[in-house]
What does this fold into?
Amino acid sequence: MDISKIGSVFADSLTEVIAKISGFTLSVLSSGYDAGFDDITAFMRLDGEKKSGMLFISAKEADIVTLCSFMTGLPENEITGTDVGDAVCEVANMTAGGAKLRLSGGDYAFTLSSPCVITGKGMSIGFKTKAPFASVTLGDGEISVRLKLIY
It folds into this structure.
């Protein structure tokens, strides 16, 4: 299985997670390029027997606030920075967990680290040159979320 197929498994999982927590039906806006990162990025390490990698879920702060409001039932103006970080980490955790179930029992089975979050405008994260990656931006006109998988 190549990285684009594994990336599709993660993108499908992210789409399902967003639909469950918010009701938004996201579709692919763009894929197959190095998407970069938005204001808030959650990341997790994926440790497999043969390969290891990293999952990144990134979005603009306003989009995560919207998702957090749906997740918690709080009005958007009551969402704190801590809430936003917790929400994006939970989205990453649920996405990775869904993909893990789909990929279990094969060469791409993995264990997960705890999710972490980094914030900042204009953020960039460097990777080894020519590291295999999958990248997709999902959206519905109201929100958009980026997924990047290095594996």
Remarks:
- The mean pLDDT is 91.
- DSSP finds three helices and seven strands in the chain.
